[in-house]
Amino acid sequence: MRENNLDWKEYEAITKYIYETLGKEFGVTIEGYGSNCKVQGKSGNFHQIDVLTKQSNGVHHVRTAIECKCLKNKVTKGTVMKLLSTINDAR
What we know:
Elements (H helix, E strand, L loop, with lengths): L7 H16 L5 E5 L4 E3 L5 E3 L2 E6 L4 E6 L10 H14 L1
Antiparallel strand pairs: 1-4, 2-3, 4-5
């Protein structure tokens, strides 16, 4: 059961907005979000990422994949393992 009226698209948009707004101070930018944000893994498969950020300090470049979940219960191990698999494939 849902405890709020947000749908998944709104939840992803809010998450993007938070990272976009707070990230300005730390050089975090949004690389993509929503159903159109796909990255190709070394397997050749494309993976959809809810919110994808990037940050660079000139030496190190970091991309962060954010999986949005708006659930009443805790996230399951299966959900975490699926995200880990996506991250490992997409580097």
